[in-house]
Amino acid sequence: MEERAAETVTPAESTVEAMFREERGRLLASLVRRFGDLDLAEEVASEAIEAALVHWPAEGVPPKPGAWLMTTARRKAVDRLRRDRVYAARLAVLQVEADRTGPVPPAGADGDLPDERLQLFFTCAHPALPAEDRGALTLRCLAGLTTPEVARAFLVPVETMAKRIVRAKKKIREARIPFRVPGADELPERLPGVLQVIYSIFTEGYAASSGPDLQRLDLAEEAIRLARILRRLLPAEREVAGLLGLMLLIHARRAARTGPDGGLVLLDDQDRGRWDRTMIREGSDLVLVALTGGPPGPYGVQAAIAALHDEAPDVATTDWPQIVALYDVLLTLAPSPIVALNRAAAVAMRDGPEAGLALLDGLSGEPRLRGYHPYPAARADLLSRLGRFSEAAAAYRQALGLAGTGPERAYLRRRLDVVEAAAVSPENG
Amino acid sequence: MKYMLLIYSAGTDAADTAAAADAPSFEDWMIYDKAVKDAGIWVSGDALADLTTATTVRVGPAGERTVTDGPFAETREILGGYYVIDVPDLDVALDWAARCPGSRGGGSVTVRPVAEFEA
Lengths: 429, 119
Fold this sequence. Notes:
The structure holds two protein chains of two kinds. Chain A is built from 21 helices and no strands. By secondary structure, chain A is an all-alpha fold. Chain A folds into four domains: 104 residues, no CATH class; 121 residues, no CATH class; 94 residues, no CATH class; 92 residues, Serine Threonine Protein Phosphatase 5, Tetratricopeptide repeat. The longest helix of chain A is centred in the first third of the chain and has 22 residues. Chain B is an alpha+beta fold. Chain B is 24% helix and 34% strand. The two termini of chain B are 15 Å apart.
């Protein structure tokens, strides 16, 4: 159990409930493998956990809790299949075919159940599922969240989320999306999809695209927890280390990201004394893993950029030339106008606002930046640093027309007030 | 499990030059067809004749039959053929779809499970 306890992110998670959330994913994965049906697996996993909640407090936690839960769940599954012959016949076919797909992995290091969650990661992140449902399904099946919890995390009504999960599970069942780990030859194509799902859960939680709260920490921590599980399942995959490192290095700044009034504090103005040094150290170690022993991947490079920010005492002493160089690498690995925008901001720090602004203006035709508020906000920032206040005000107004979260809008409004005042004051012309 | 691979070719105006350069040859189709049959997964499959030969039939509530020429390619993608294959799961079906020459050169292959009804 020690190894599993290490996956917990905060002390608050080391509760009985969190332990069951962890067990639930493992149990579910093993059941899915045996029965080939996600609905049945979910049902009997829940029943087994309910049984444990009744028995364990009275009788004590069994020596192999995972095996106990599995035995209980299987017994309940068999009962259910005895009652429903048609269902059983259909599952029998599935099971025969599932058995063909590969050997059962050996028992886990603790002698308890083998960890079969990897296949479930790949099923939940399958490209044949709608992109918006992959994160929800991953949270439900692997993070052990309930449907109402997932709904709250994504700020959608429970009913909407329930429908989406049912729809996704229906496609898995009826189009027969397999529960299997892709072969070594397929992994380079399939792993980025899994990483993308975890990272999108993180960014969704971290910088909520809408709604009153700037950060929804739970979702960010769930993403980190999922990445830790994945890292143990795929220890040789350096991009998994890169993703976990990246998220830790961003999450390390969480306490400094909002001011006492709940307002957004940008990286430049954050109190770096409030950054989580332990988390930064862990993240930086992962950057080393991610960038050693082969060509770097996009998550490893992004993590390296985050590490340079986190390790600098302040903005002025940040290694901007190195950051620009890393953005150059990132642009070749994963070209996107958003990477180009971030590179331009780094160039502005290295070579001055004029150089950055020239690069930003070169991106004005990019359709993906058209509705993206950080683009006019970045222009506004450089324009104001150049003393071009009325142009800066116009750009802040444009950003305000696009920005999502309340704190982000409040920040932009404060900046707009500052540059508008500067624009009319006689000293600044 | 049976899957239908619906093979769509890009409309002529939609095909850009780079994609057209990758357009499959008759020989590519022969090789693929042989591979499907050798793998023992072939259930059925045909190429469809040119879209200009298509005719559409509709029957109204009073049983009146309307026959029209077409449809013609206002739609960007044209169904040009299909395979039905019997494979264990969607991943295998997607692999066969990716190997299909129709998925290249601006074309696409849609994979649909064949509905199964309880007997």
